[in-house]
Amino acid sequence: MNITIIAVGKLKEKYLKQGIDEYVKRLSAYAKIQIIEIPDEKAPEELSETEMRLVKQKEGQRIIAKIPTDAHVIALAIEGKMKTSEQLAADLERLMTYGKSKIALVIGGSLGLSEDVLARANEQLSFSKMTFPHQLMRLVLVEQVYRAFRIMRGEPYHK
């Protein structure tokens, strides 16, 4: 399976990079994983609704350009469906079983994802009703994908 994580923003925090690197290394035993960083759109702190939409559109165009054409796209969105780790594992296994070998997981910037990206997504996934920094979400996502593969293989993993 080929997993592409497309994330808006550059990861700066060393501790997050180290955590992500560790899970990517562990995941390499199960799947080919690639993380693509999309530059975030520079914008002032205070934005109008129109300006926010424009920022998300520009970031969205960059995201869509990096999504493999034949990928099953899962967008992380607060409005998405919440799943247990076991449900995520079952869904990934089902995708693999039915010939979807490319999965793209998309993490938006601080303003979220554009309507175009959400429309391109095959599904939306929410980790919580709470808002998380998108840099931290990258670490949580990689850990959950790793956990899903451990569950699929019936391998032990701490709870």
Question: Your description of this structure?
Answer:
The chain has one domain (2-152): Alpha/beta knot (3-Layer(aba) Sandwich), CATH 3.40.1280.10. It has helices at residues 14-27, 49-66, 85-97, 115-120, 134-152; strands at 2-8, 32-38, 72-82, 102-107, 123-126. The longest helix has 19 residues, at 134-152. With 159 residues, the chain is of the alpha/beta class. It is 44% helix and 22% strand. Strands 2-1-4-3-5 form a five-stranded parallel β-sheet. The radius of gyration is 15 Å and the shape is globular.
Keywords:
single chain, 159 residues, alpha/beta, Alpha/beta knot, five-stranded parallel beta sheet
Strand order of the largest sheet: 2-1-4-3-5
Low-confidence stretches: none
Count of structural domains: 1
Rg, please?
Answer: 15 Å
- Counting DSSP E segments of at least 2 residues, the number of strands comes to 5
User: What gap, in angstroms, lies between the N and C termini?
Assistant: 25 Å
Query: What is the third-level CATH name, the topology?
Result: Alpha/beta knot
Estimated structural class: alpha/beta
Going by CATH, the homologous superfamily would be SPOUT methyltransferase, trefoil knot domain
Q: How confident is the prediction overall: mean pLDDT? A: 94
